[in-house]
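debug: dumping io for the single-chain case to check the tokenizer round-trip. Nothing else runs in this session.
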Amino acid sequence: MKNEEQIKEYRAKLPDRINVSIRNEDGSFWAKITTSDGQLSNCYTQAENINELVVMINDAVRTHFEVPEKIREEVGFYLPVPENHLRWEEFFNQLSAMQSEGGNETILTLRKPELVG
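debug: decoded output
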């Protein structure tokens, strides 16, 4: 199997989103990794600092799904999603549902952007 085909295959296996519960214990960080659909359970990792923890979380997910070492970098890397991004995504999902269902009403409040400089 060519690398490109393998990369596509493993990207398709990996969940779009992962949820990470992080605990700070005695100066090191522990993470429990799950998905909302149950694809990941009993998946844990630890690290000495937050930067290392993000790397270890990715390693744990890739290990769980048995992604070969030689293509791990090409398969992708999970990054934290800012809270405001999640709120926007939820909002647009609600608008999309409204459009498909019809007849619902919602209130949208927008604010003028602040000038920088």
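debug: round-trip ok. The mean pLDDT is 84.
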